[in-house]
Specification:
Number of strands: 12
Mean pLDDT: 93
CATH topology of the largest domain: TIM Barrel
Shape: globular
Structural class: alpha/beta
Strand content: 15-25%
InterPro entries: Aldolase_TIM (IPR013785), Class_II_FBP_aldolase (IPR050246), Dabb (IPR013097), Dimeric_a/b-barrel (IPR011008), FBA_II (IPR000771)
Number of helices: 15
Pfam families: Dabb (PF07876), F_bP_aldolase (PF01116)
Protein name: Fructose-bisphosphate aldolase
GO molecular function, one term: tagatose-bisphosphate aldolase activity
CATH architecture of the largest domain: Alpha-Beta Barrel
Largest sheet: 8 strands, parallel, barrel
Strand order of the largest sheet: 1-2-3-4-5-6-7-8
């Protein structure tokens, strides 16, 4: 089970002075290419899904494939929600299988950023999920997705960064020191001195958004000054687009499969280049040895009801599914009736938690307490409840 805790993954990178690639994906071609590259390089990797890309895919539809592929991988993998827009986005991301979240409040004033991020951290940490915050602002210049980040670059201030981390409790901090979303115009000018001061003040994994267009030396300078996660997308999209244009030029009459032929390999080649450049190649075994496996929990309840009709039990279950499935950390809600008429218990709940810590936060969540006290416990006195952790 190579899906691991992203906090452990990035702490290892921070200590050993390398950076883990967080490749944004927008399709199954990107998913396969990223994992192929990570396995070829024996490297840990982060599968990143940006809310700014949701126009290109349906998040709830794609996520089961991402989770399945991550669990089948031979290298340590984390799944990250990138640039989430709202608190509800973070809850949805965790409930769909993200093991790390970032809700971008960087456009808010400092106090607003702190307050909103702290709310996200409280919810996510109760689910065992680490949180990336952002302070400063990384604007877009040109290229795919750049228009979604309008405005001017605002650099991260050292004193504010220290206060922000202390007050929010974020696990990682995305900083603005001169990179941009999309493609660079001209020669990149990074404030490495500022980055070094931030790293000295915080001592936590730092994140760079907008990695496309930097030189080999600039990447090395970033990593030497605490950057342990580099978000990377535009160059992958450009590699895919270049391959598609070449296919169209070679055969103007080809259909869809002809147009996308070789796209996975083109994306993989760019991913491998960056993985090796950032020093995460060959680190998979060390991360697997240290990182907590990401294990989901099945919350199982078997029960009988008293004084209820079959229709009332169905309604009880429906209200529960609608209510409980929206609680942070609840991945799936299954309700069932026994096939055997003489079964000791006639009904069941199987509720999948994203992480073992959800067992406590779920138990005390006001929506669960209200449902249990109002609907369930009054009629289901005869019940057994047990939490099971994945034994794989």
């Amino acid at each position: 089970m190579p899906l691991v805790n992203m906090r452990d993954m990035l702490q290892h990178a921070h200590r050993e002075r390398y950076a883990v690639a967080a490749f944004d994906l927008v399709s199954l071609d990107f998913l396969h290419a990223i994992l192929n590259a990570a396995e070829a390089c024996e490297a840990p990797v982060i599968l990143s899904l940006a809310e700014s890309h949701f126009d290109y895919f349906d998040f709830p539809t794609l996520m089961p494939a991402v989770v399945s592929a991550a669990r089948r991988a031979n290298v340590p993998v984390a799944i990250h929600l990138d640039h989430g827009a709202t608190y509800e986005s973070a809850v949805q991301g965790i409930n769909l299988g993200c093991t790390g979240v970032m809700v971008d409040a960087s456009t808010r004033p400092f106090e607003g950023n702190v307050d909103y991020t702290r709310k996200i951290v409280g919810m996510a940490h109760a689910c065992g999920v680490p949180v990336e915050g952002e302070l400063g602002y990384v604007a877009g210049v040109e290229g795919e997705d750049a228009e979604r980040h309008p405005g001017e670059v605002r650099y991260t201030e050292v004193a504010e960064a220290k206060e922000y981390v202390e007050r929010t409790g974020v696990d990682f901090l995305a900083v603005s020191i001169g990179t941009v979303h999309g493609r660079m115009k001209g020669e990149p000018n990074l404030d490495i001195e500022r980055l070094g001061a931030i790293n000295d003040a915080l001592g936590i994994p730092l994140v760079i958004h907008g990695g496309t267009g930097l030189s080999d030396q600039q990447f090395q300078d970033l990593i030497a000054n605490g950057v342990t996660k580099i978000n990377y997308y535009t160059a992958l999209a450009d590699a895919a687009g270049k391959q598609i244009r070449a296919n169209a030029q070679a055969d103007s009459g080809c259909g869809y499969t002809g147009l996308v032929k070789g796209v996975i390999g083109a994306i993989q080649q760019e991913c491998e280049k960056r993985i090796r450049q950032w020093g995460s190649d060959g680190k998979a075994a060390a991360v697997l040895a240290e990182a907590e496996p990401w294990q989901e929990v099945e919350h199982v309840i078997v029960y009988n009801t008293e004084g209820t009709t079959a229709e009332q039990v169905d309604e009880l279950m429906q209200i529960g599914r609608d209510t409980l499935s929206n609680i942070p950390g609840v991945r799936r809600v299954f309700t069932g009736n026994a096939l055997q008429e003489d079964a000791t218990y006639q009904h069941c709940w199987v509720i999948r938690f994203a992480h073992r810590e959800v067992a406590d936060s779920y138990r005390n969540h006001p929506d669960h307490v209200a449902y249990a006290d109002t609907h369930f416990r009054p009629v289901a006195g005869d019940r057994i409840s047990i939490d099971y952790e994945d034994a794989d």
